[in-house]
Amino acid sequence: AEAAALRERLRCVKHTVLVLSGKGGVGKSTFSALLAHGLAADETKQVALLDIDICGPSIPKMMGLEGEQVHQSGSGWSPVYVEENLGVMSVGFLLSSPDDAVIWRGPKKNGLIKQFLRDVDWGEIDYLIVDTPPGTSDEHLSIVQYLGTLHIDGAVIITTPQEVSLQDVRKEINFCHKVKLPIIGVVENMSGFVCPKCKNESQIFPPTTGGAEKMCQNLNVSLLGKVPLDPQIGKSCDRGQSFLSEAPESPATSSYRNIIQRIQEYCDLHHFQEEKII
Hints:
The chain is of the alpha/beta class. It has a single domain (about 1-185, about 230-275), classed as Rossmann fold.
């Protein structure tokens, strides 16, 4: 009965993309927010961003929605909208203060994730982007299980160039293989820094073992792209603005747009192949 309720609620979702990371602080939520903004730039597409990072919900601030609350109607919870075609849902909207700590055990987290999928009135959606917490634990198993009745296009895995980050990404890739979650590809964040004055490039996080590119070659996974450091990214997130529209000339914006285009192409190809099978 629960599976049927989830299927019914989510039957109008065309594409589902999970954003994963092996560890925290690599720019996963930033990427999720910018992916949603980038996809929603096409006004003909309906985009939903679901934040299941229960203990560290940063999406409301990044999307400029801090202080907003969720409203309930006869058809369920209503998402909070950034634009007419970009809706957001996060536990951050349910807290009385942004500083409140969520001190929950696994079953309660799993229950909320199920509630987000079953009770939120998303409507017709072209892209459902799911921002997950770091690691491979309760939330990840739950979202894969609950979305198992639907088609998940795949996962985008975020890393930084240094080995300490890549080590955890290998575990994330292993997790995806074990739960049969397709991997769309890997994004390397903080990949070098070009000084805006002298134009010299510095490696803030040196890729001592070859970075994401070498890892992807070894594990036969696609590298979607490398995003250089840009101080404006952090500033835009703090202000709740889209970095893509605030800094259109930045090399990082160009990288993000290329990556987003590759994700769209991947989703369209898989949707086409699915229709052929049906």
